[in-house]
Design a protein that fits this description.
By secondary structure, the protein is α+β, with helices and mostly antiparallel strands. It has one domain: Alpha-Beta Plaits (2-Layer Sandwich). It has helices at residues 13-33, 61-68, 71-80; strands spanning 2-10, 37-45, 48-58, 84-92. A hairpin with a 2-residue loop joins strand 2 and strand 3 (48-58).
Length: 102
């Protein structure tokens, strides 16, 4: 398995609303078209209304690469910048846990 944890910080509340709408549209496409994307979740951070955390888990690195090549993902990556003041990405190496099995 291959995973990412991404922390996005939006510019302001208006930007956060626009970002959330973009995320919702993109998430629907991911659900419909990416069987190798096992988990793609988005969270608000309690007490920090401009922050969003994504947790992404892919069957393998090839599934992640397939995700990155989708037109709707490329559109997301291009459009998101207008809403954000910062982005932090951590690549995750799965060790153990309960959840999706492949």
């Amino acid at each position: 398995m291959f995973g990412l944890m991404v922390r996005f910080t939006c510019k302001d509340e208006e930007a956060a609303a626009g970002f959330d709408a973009l995320v919702a549209r993109t998430g629907e496409q991911i659900k419909a078209h990416e069987p190798g994307t096992l988990i793609y979740t988005v969270h608000r951070v309690e007490g920090r209304p401009l922050e969003r955390i994504f947790y992404e888990l892919y069957r393998d690195e090839a599934a992640f690469q397939a995700h990155e090549e989708q037109g709707y993902v490329k559109a997301f990556l291009a459009e998101r910048e207008r809403y954000l003041s910062s982005t932090e990405v951590d690549r995750l190496d799965f060790l153990s846990g309960k959840g999706v099995t492949v």
